[in-house]
Write a structure and sequence with these properties.
211 residues, mainly alpha, two-stranded antiparallel sheet, 2 strands, 10% strand, disordered N terminus, transmembrane, membrane, monoatomic ion channel activity, Neuro-gated_channel_TM_sf
C-alpha cells in the first residue's frame, strides 16, 4: 500500500521539505510537508489548449465578410472554450479561499473575450452589408478617416493615403475599418490577459488575492 502511494506521489507531486513537531504538553506529533505539483500534465492538457483556442479567436477578423462563416466561426470557438471550461473544472480545486485559481480566471477571461468577439463580428457585418442607399453618418465617416490616417502614418504608405482621400466612403469601408480596429483591440487585450496570467503564476499579483 505504501509503495503504491509513493509511486503516485512521485508522478504528481514533488516533496520540497517535511518536518515533525512534538507538543510537550500533549501526547501528539504534528507533521507538516511542503509539496510542489509537477506542472507538465496541466500545461499540455489545460494551458496550451486554452492558448490555442483563444489565438484562433483573433483570426475571425481575417475571414472575408462575403464568406458568411464569420459568425459561425466565432460562435464555434466560444462554445469550444465554454465546453473546455466545463470539462477542465473537474481538475481544478473548487475553492475561493485563499483565492480563486489563476487558470479559472484565465478561462473566464477567455469566455468573456470570445463573447465580445461575437458581438464585434455581428456589428462589423451589420455595417458591411448595410444598403448604400442609406448615407454614411458624419461620425462613421470621421471614424473611417481617423483609422485610415493612423494606419497610413504607421505603414508610411503615401500613395494609399492619397487614394483614400479620393475615394467615397461607403458602408463596406466602414465595415472593413471596424474589422481592423476590433482585430487590433482584441489582439492587444489577449496579449495583456496572457501576460497578466504569466506574471501571476510566476511572481503573483497582489490584487487578485482579494478575489
Amino acid at each position: 500500500m505504501f509503495c503504491c502511494v509513493g509511486t503516485i506521489h512521485k508522478k504528481t507531486w514533488e516533496l520540497i521539505e517535511s518536518s515533525v513537531t512534538k507538543n510537550e504538553d500533549l501526547q501528539d506529533l504534528e507533521f507538516s510537508m511542503t509539496l510542489k505539483r509537477n506542472p507538465m500534465f496541466f500545461v499540455l492538457n489545460l494551458i496550451l489548449p486554452i492558448c490555442v483556442m483563444i489565438t484562433l479567436n483573433m483570426f475571425v477578423f481575417l475571414l472575408p465578410p462575403e464568406s458568411g462563416e464569420r459568425v459561425g466561426y466565432a460562435v464555434t470557438v466560444l462554445l469550444a472554450i465554454a465546453v473546455f471550461l466545463t470539462i477542465s473544472s473537474g481538475n481544478l480545486p473548487a475553492t475561493s479561499s485563499p483565492r480563486i485559481p489563476s487558470i479559472s480566471l484565465l478561462l473566464f477571461a477567455d469566455v468573456v473575450i470570445s463573447a465580445v468577439i461575437v458581438l464585434m463580428v455581428i456589428l462589423s457585418l451589420r455595417y458591411y452589408h448595410r444598403d448604400d442607399n442609406y448615407p454614411v453618418s458624419t461620425f462613421m465617416r470621421g471614424f473611417v478617416n481617423v483609422s485610415r490616417i493612423i494606419r497610413c502614418k504607421v505603414c508610411c504608405c503615401r500613395r494609399k493615403q492619397d487614394k483614400y482621400n479620393k475615394d467615397l466612403i461607403k458602408w463596406t469601408d466602414v465595415g472593413k475599418e471596424v474589422d481592423i480596429v476590433c482585430g487590433i483591440f482584441i489582439t492587444a487585450v489577449i496579449c495583456i490577459v496572457n501576460a497578466l496570467y504569466i506574471i501571476d503564476v510566476t511572481v503573483g499579483l497582489p490584487g487578485l488575492d482579494l478575489l
